[in-house]
Fold:
Amino acid sequence: MVDWQLVKEYFPDIAAKFPITLKMVIISISLGLLLGFIQAIIRINKVPVLNQLALVQISYIRCTPVITQLYVIYFGVPIILSNFGFDVGGINKEFYAILAYTLNQAVFLGENIRSSLQAVPKGQFDAGRSVGMTEAQTLLSIVTPQALYISLPMLGTFLVALFQGTALAYLVGVTDMMGKVKLLGAKTGHTLEGYIVCAIIFAVISIILEQVFRVLNNKLDFANKKAKTDDNTVLRAAGGNA
Amino acid sequence: MSKEENEIIVEVKNVRKSFGKLDVLKGVDIEVRKGEVVVILGPSGSGKTTLLRCLNFLEKADSGTLRIGDKSVDLKKVRKKEILELRRKTAFVFQNYNLFANKTALENVTQGLIKAQKVPKAEVKERGMQALEWVKLPEKAGSYPSQLSGGQQQRVGIARAVALCPDVILFDEPTSALDPELVGETLELIKKVAGTGITMIVVTHEMSFARDVADKVIFMDGGYVVEQGTPDEIFVNPKDDRTRQFLSRIIPPEYSI
Structure:
């Protein structure tokens, strides 16, 4: 039987670890977006050597389970670092988890960004250049906003998946919500109640995230946007020949 | 016409361009005088659009020289900065409008003024609205391209080009994507642009427009300029067989002059 009283008692302790999950998600998705953008630019422009390296990294990340990637980083990186003379003892376990999730996200987000940028009609680049904007200006003010809109549904899916995916981080010793459940379980012998708390928190936050992305999607939808009517233009239009 | 004495504002010499093994431009020379309306005619694949796109570096020509105004470059070794400088002397009206999908009609018109020409903010909106009023679309200032009809989009496209006050406006089959009813009003608008005395190079299949508006007609085929001259010279007395053949096919006999 589920001890609902225990669920209630566990809740504050487990929820207190939510910021750790949040931190892992925010850092991984931000760095992932940055690296992903770089990866996308490398892939689109087929930059020699870097493009090949990116392809290797993409197949590695795509073709291996996240938990394997997590362990490879967790056990592999300290060896590399200590070879270079770093003291790995002081490194926080969260570092390895964040590194693994960042590299994972970079690949998936990068491919998403690449396909979204390439989905923007070429004529938009042409138009940007034709009015005298530089490549960078065109990319920034014309192409990227349109690509962002195209990529948004996938971005939302990735974010929710990452959020849930961080539940694995306790396997490398991060005391996030899942890690806390394990500790509580070891102490009291009741684990199920803890996992129920986790399930509730993960579900609620995921639903909120999905809604946030739905709102964002509607906001950014320039194809169905309401016409802008600021006072001045309306006034002028009324005087013009409508 | 007095335009014949105007200075040459666009000068293209021996421009060549190939896509892989396909030679699209095989050494094209054209000259355009200030204020002239030059119409480029020719069958599909003759290189007209490519030539137009090479003029503002949407396509990079392989060799040749290009002069616009007082700036001249060797197309083989043109630098990025020079490309930008030359491009900013031109504006382009596209076959498929290519309005910025994420910008309103007004923002479409002002984008280049703000980002490329660095026109002060207060002035930008004024000039943008002026351009939209000029194409009779001020009430659509806040609309997004997806909310405009094809004809309206092309009018915004023309406003966007005109607002830049370029040395030359390049039109790439500006009416080809429009339904027949809208072709007329768009052509009228392009005539209105021509009436302002701005230099224009127009690629089109609208023969009557070419006859009425052009100061000079250039006939291209197979990557070469086959023949050029006044509309009368080209339409009434074409010298080259290829020109005659093309015109006889495109203008039914009962309508030809």
Observations:
- Chain A touches chain B through 36 residues (CB under 8 Å).
